[in-house]
Design brief:
Keywords: Cell membrane, Membrane, Transmembrane, Transmembrane helix. By secondary structure, the protein is an all-alpha fold. The chain has six helices and no strands. It has one domain.
Amino acid sequence: MTLPKPTDDIAVLVARVLLGVVLMAHGLQKLVTDGIGGTTASFQAMGIPLPTVSALYATVAEIGGGLLLLVGLATAVAAILVALDMAGALVFVHISNGVFVQSGGWELVGLIGVVALLIAAVGAGRFSIDGVLAARKRPERSDAAA
């Protein structure tokens, strides 16, 4: 059993918007606060492979993916790119620190990744650019076809 319409679309909207805001905040922190050079140095210190490429990918995935999720455009692609970003953070940094974020654990990246995967699976919902575009593509039903 799932939530009835339009409650399900509202739930997806809330999840997309909140996830988009969190991602954009983290991406902007990498770009503006730390800078790509600082983010690269931090990634290098954590042993992340190809730290410059990884810093650029994380920044773009978080800002761009966050923005796309926020408005619901190219949602599945954006969500998968975010999930891959979080998988990298999980494997290379957080998994060895346990669960809790205050110990450097994986709970935040795990939740972000799983929510992104869930949004990729269920779609952006009606209250999104993807939803509007999909509604325009649907053929109109005539009374004869009904």
